[in-house]
Amino acid sequence: MELLRALTQPLVLAGLVTWAAVALGLPMEQSGRPALMWSLALAYLVGFVAIDVLPGRWQQRLRMPLLALQAACALALVWLAPRGGTAPVLLVVLVAQLAMALPPRVTVPAVVVLNVALYLLLREAGYTQPLLVTTLYVGFQAFAALTAHYARTAEASRDALAAVNADLLATRALLADSARSNERLRVARELHDVAGHKLTALGLNLRLLEADPALRMRDELRTCRTLAGELLGDLRNLVAAMRHDDGLDLATALHALAAPLPKPSLHLRIDPTARVTDPAVAEAIVRTVQEALTNAARHAGAERLTVALDREGNTLHLRIDDDGRLHGPLREGNGLAGMRERLATLGGRLALSTGDAGALRIDAEIPA
């Protein structure tokens, strides 16, 4: 299902159709090495498809080698069959991929190198106007690159909007939970101060009535006093239950953060004793997990993020692990630095390390 979804994305589908059109034109090429041509075409196809169907961590690691493979195959096909005119179309698809995957400062020099090679191959093949043909394909490439660039920009805007929406949903969940807790506490105080006071006064008045010899033997009076005492006891139990705070609902807020991200999936383990009642502490935990989700998706290519929250005495322990892999040494950027500063304002601390598989591990301690 994941493979089918990847292959039916609009730009991928357009690339597959273009490759099929070039492949249909290969038998008409006047080349003495058809087996080599088909091998190169299939190698190009494998590289094209692999970039979109590989898991996240392998995709980041192999993207550049696969793009280089596609470039080599496309230029080799131009060299083997320069007269047909269809092989350079593969460079148009490649340039679109470069624009989707790389920033312009990398894409533009790569496109220049590709087209210089295309021009030299066409001139070597004896084209009367190799510069005109190269310029024509540069126009197609520019159109494809701009289309891919705007698609990439639209995806980035969509992801940013989804992240902001998730942030708002998580904040709303915490605020709503905090408001419910405050309202419960207010109602408990009102019951204790108003109803409890009046029931106590009622009990005292009933006791005074019992001192009257004319009323002492009335069963109704004893029943009223008993009921008043039981009602006062029930009210105290109710107030105690309402004052009992189970803490803010962190699970709902964290799942709201992870919902817009296709990867990594979020797996929570919150110890029942790790209740968080302070909104500032809850926000620090939510922001820490949010930054970890962003780093795991953007830099590590992780498929799964595990968050564990435990309590030891008056300290909350937060551990975050993912199954991705860091590329290069661990460097503390703005996101991790902001995470450390946020925890430090609450008297907490942050420790960063790498797991056995090379993934980032975050350990935080927060007084609570």
Automatic annotation (TrEMBL):
CDD domains in the record: HATPase_UhpB-NarQ-NarX-like
Keyword Mitochondrion applies: no
One GO CC term, this protein: membrane
Location of the Signal transduction histidine kinase subgroup 3 dimerisation and phosphoacceptor domain: 183-245
Residue ranges crossing the lipid bilayer per the database entry: 35-54, 102-122, 131-151
One GO MF term: protein dimerization activity
Domain Histidine kinase/HSP90-like ATPase: start-end pairs: 282-358
Pfam families noted in UniProt: HATPase_c (PF02518), HisKA_3 (PF07730)
UniProt-listed InterPro entries: HATPase_C_sf, HATPase_dom, Sensor_HK_TwoCompSys, Sig_transdc_His_kin_sub3_dim/P
Gene3D superfamilies assigned: 1.20.5.1930, Histidine kinase-like ATPase, C-terminal domain
Keywords: Kinase, Membrane, Transferase, Transmembrane, Transmembrane helix, Two-component regulatory system
Protein's recorded name: Histidine kinase
Organism listed in the record: Lysobacter arseniciresistens ZS79
Source lineage: Bacteria, Pseudomonadati, Pseudomonadota, Gammaproteobacteria, Lysobacterales
